[in-house]
Amino acid sequence: MMSDVDETKVELPPLSFEKCPESDEERTKRLAIEELIAKSPENRIPLAALRELALSNYGLVNDDLRRILWPQLAGVDVKDLERAPTLDELQSHPEYHQVVLDVNRSLKRFPPGIPYEQRIALQDQLTVLILRVIKKYPNLRYYQGYHDVAVTFLLVAGEEVAFAIMEHLSTTHFSECMQETMEATQRRLMFIWPVVLFEQPELFHFLQRSTVGTLFALPWYLTWFGHSLNSYKAVVRLYDYFLASPMYTPIFVTAAILLHRANVILQEDCDMASVHCLLSKLPDDLPFEDLLITSSKLYDKYSLTVIEKKVEELIKIEQEQRKLEEARINLRRSVSSKSNYNVSKWFLKILTPKSVMMTTAVSIVVGICAYYYKNQYLAAGIS
Residue 228 and residue 126: Cα distance in Å, rounded? Predict the structure, then answer.
């Protein structure tokens, strides 16, 4: 069963590919990474050091370095890549038309101003990339939003490397999202709440009272924020971080964003529509370097076992509240039904044959009088 990210989104402007001037800190880090690559056998940086670079400020800095280092983070051997089939070879796949439809709707995620022929070629490569994965792994289900992840790796690493990375991620980080239903993903999103509760109870209780749920965070989780951010630079920086992190890290980044925006959220009207609208659109000025530091601290602070236990408690509380609400509704229905029955019974008691005859007689008299007076008024020229 596919999950439609479009149901939860606000219409987004085109992705901004604006190139900002390199800061002194970024230049220093870039030069350090380039030196490490030059010194490493076959340009392969030791994995622990590479992860540290991807997690720390500015990540892998630019796409030239990502093209070399993203495959290493994903465990991909660039010397052993499979040949990409043609689009014609994949047209018989049952998901073909849906994938083409989604790819055609993803024009805003491509760099602006590229020649038409190049854009068409990229769209075809993206379609092939996605279909290759779900054809090779029939147990995995394509979901709308998957293409937002795939297009990022395609733009940075090229078609064949992007396929190898997406193959790896689809069987690890995104495996829950690609099940027959979204039940496991929806449950995973509930992991947000214990973290918020432990860190800021006031915010947690406000969000629970608003009944906003976790739908606002679904596209964030399904696409590693690729669908929801307007800055390409922010998207690839997050991908550096996620590739170097455990698979559930997007949950902690989501919690970090909610905690960062707590004051703004608490000033909003406490109802589902208002809060969902506020949360669904991410501000352009989020301080992601600070948020990623917070996310890492939260991950280290709270074990998944503790979080899962709290989720179980929250689910039980929610189920009990639902049962109470259902009981109240049934009670109201019962009282209303009994009241209606008593009124009907009273009406039937007073509706004796004698009362029916009297009511009929009165109605006839009133009708005759009305007819008589109407004729009198018409005769006098009064309408």
Answer: 19
Question: CA dist 313 to 61, 263, 318, 319, Å?
Answer: 42, 27, 9, 10
Residue 240 CA, distance from chain mean position:
20
Largest CA-CA distance found in the chain, in angstroms, rounded: 115
Q: Which residues have C-beta within 8 Å of that of residue 124, sequence separation ≥ 6? A: 87
Q: How many CB atoms lie within 10 A of CB 194?
A: 20
Percent of the chain residues topping a pLDDT of 70: 84
Which amino acid is residue 345, in one-letter code? K
- pLDDT tens by residue, 94-125: 999 999 999 988 777 888 878 888 989 999 99
Check if the beta carbon of residue 278 is closer than 8 Å to that of residue 265: yes
Distance CA 376, CA 368 (A): 12
Give me the domains of the chain, ranges plus CATH numbers.
38-74 (no CATH), 87-177 (1.10.8.1310), 182-307 (1.10.472.80)
Chain center to CA of 212? 13
